[in-house]
Amino acid sequence: MTATKRLQAKRITRGVLSQRAGCNIETVRYYERAGLMPDPERSEGGYRLYQEQHVRRLQFIRRCRELGFTIAEIRALLDLVDRKDYTCEEVRDISIAHVEEVRRKIEDLRRLERTMLGMIKECDGGAVPECPIIDALFDAAAVRPG
């Protein structure tokens, strides 16, 4: 196999990229539009041609999303990686900030749970059309601005 054919064999289409990374093509397009995926080479016919580094990057992005990182946080991490001279401290700082946000969300969910359980506790589950849960939801909506 010639060097040119070996190089071409390493290039893959967007469909193959999405399969290898375990996501759909629209996800790849979304991350490209968001600026998380670099522009790939193009074939003579204009098709995008990806390489193994794109698969790894997409897998990295997907794993970050599974861990709840925002697009901005992922962009910050990838900017560090692309810079190639990042420190572990920089990555740690982004990760610590992310964990603090996760903790805030957990506390918000606990507050939501307590509120919902309080409303449920007021409901006896009767067969009449009056329900304290519905009343509480309507009352909360009337108090809320906007």
Based on the model shown, name its key terms.
7 helices, elongated, 2 domains, mainly alpha, Multidrug-efflux Transporter Regulator, Chain: A, Domain 2, 146 residues
Description:
This protein is mainly alpha-helical. 68% of the residues lie in helices and 3% in strands. The chain is elongated.
Summary of the model, kept short:
Helix content is 68%, strand content 3%. By secondary structure, it is an all-alpha fold. It has two domains: 3-86, Multidrug-efflux Transporter Regulator, Chain: A, Domain 2 (Orthogonal Bundle); 104-146, no CATH class.
Ends: how far apart? Answer: 67 Å
CATH class value of the largest domain: Mainly Alpha
Count up the helices: 7
The fold-level CATH name of the largest domain is Multidrug-efflux Transporter Regulator, Chain: A, Domain 2
Order of helices and strands: HHHEEHHHH
What coarse outline follows from CA principal-axis ratios?
elongated
Mean pLDDT: 89
Enumerate the spans where pLDDT stays under 50 for 5 or more consecutive residues.
none
| Lateral strand order in the biggest sheet | 1-2
List the helices and strands and how they pair.
Layout: H1 3-9, H2 14-21, H3 25-33, E1 41-42, E2 48-49, H4 52-66, H5 71-83, H6 88-122, H7 132-143
Antiparallel strand pairs: 1-2
Helix pairs in contact: 2-4, 5-6
